[in-house]
Amino acid sequence: MSIRQWIIKTIDRERQDALSRALSISPVTASVLLGRGVQTTEEAHRWLTMATSSPHDPMRLPDMERAIARLHGAVEQRERICFYGDYDVDGVTSVSLFLSYFQRLGGQRLFLHSPPRAGRVRIERSSRSASPCRRCLAGGDLRLRQHLV
Prior knowledge:
- This protein is mainly α.
- The protein has two domains: 13-52; 58-140.
- It is 43% helix and 9% strand.
- Strands 2-1-3 form a three-stranded parallel β-sheet.
- Helix 1 (13-23) packs across helix 2 (27-35).
């Protein structure tokens, strides 16, 4: 097992305090922003409010309308739906959101699959595996290089 060493950037305490006071955020949050290269109060404000004014439209992703229709059809037909997610914070969050959303829609045959900690998900292998879901798969933050609908 390899040992990883954390490299922590040195943060200018005066800039950290100024950012913390100007935006009424914790010094830890200010440090994270500074560590990510955010330099000004305006940049920090944009970074912190990006979620509500995100310029990214998920409907512009390839085949998004088809994927949505497929997932809703699977719920209506009571098909098994398998949600794949990795172990990092956005992978776990995306699968949690998938599961809670589709449960509220009435999905009853929902399954979760996570790859081995050191592994990558391979759709072609997963679809032929012993997985309970061979027809309807959805992935969250898996860095897949392909999409299937």
